[in-house]
């Protein structure tokens, strides 16, 4: 990459130098030519001023040329009819051709000054001619110097320009190398660091660089790596939870199946003769199947909640009527456990799934009944506060200590396993409650004291964040 950057840079540099060189050579050459031409004009005017047109022009011109002018230059004096009156390079002007048709002479007679470049017929060299009308208007004084084209001047300044270009080139290449380094070195370092990636390794050590675009690469890479790592950790955690859940669920199902099988075998083999015992066995079988049904229903409920099922049907749920309905279904077990149910509800409604809300409140109410004592109470309150729905389920039952409070929302966690099972508990009720609360981006708080009772407060925002 560095080579490619350098190569392109050098090509651009050479092109720029060539273009700017060509322009400057041309303009400098042209300026020098103009400068020479005006110098020649000044000489012509001096010569014109020095000449005595009534005397011998040839003699005067030869003397002037010899004493004051450069040997390579040539002075010619042409009369208005085109005849050459004097010439510094020719002894016998009589034999010279008429000069009236020469461009610079024509121009000088017409406009006062004239110039031309061409090969001299008299001396056979390529020349620059500059001519001016004499002050008396009867002659044209012309000066000529050897000249081919603009390049004549360029050649004289070429070494200086070449040196300048060379220095500019070397300095630019050095700067280009440094510039290419400032880009390629960090990129090399970054790609080397990224090349170290091995599996989920994320401990990159990127340097800070001068250009923010380069830092963006390293920052983004680190951010992406951290996100991937967090995602992988989350997947790992979920995988573990799922595995534990399956093994717990199979274990939980195995127990009722084993006892059902035991009772069924005893009945089948005819060991039980006594009708009362038979009845008891049938009742136990029914109870165990009831437990299994509860368990399977809870497992299905959890898996549906985990899948965040799209088919959850939302409707406006009025909490008052919902509580009445829940109390009606809870009444039989409340009577069985001799627990009183109380409710206090302000008229409030929420956009939610009625089925999920029923499940949530029902689980809390039935826990309040189950983990209570005869003569105990369960109070349910619902109200609206700060744009949120509050549902509080409180009991004066057995309560639980701090350690247990922290774990009751875990799947299959039961404080008193025997008691829970006896009452058809699955250990999944509060886990389902927590899932539903999370589905609505709400929160649940538990306060409890052993022997005094428990209080669950659920807070749900009215607008579900999807
Ligand atoms: P379970 O099916 O056993 O009732 P839950 O998940 O609903 O499962 O509750 C987990 C455990 O939390 C219960 O086994 C019980 O020990 C305890 N628990 C739940 N609610 C109460 C309550 N209101 N009072 C006392 N203990 C409770």
TrEMBL record:
Subcellular location: Membrane
EC number: 2.7.13.3
Primary location class: membrane
One Gene Ontology biological process: cellular response to phosphate starvation
Gene Ontology cellular component annotations, sorted alphabetically: plasma membrane
CDD domains named in the record: HATPase, HisKA
Name by which UniProt lists this protein: histidine kinase
Lineage: Bacteria, Bacillati, Bacillota, Clostridia, Lachnospirales
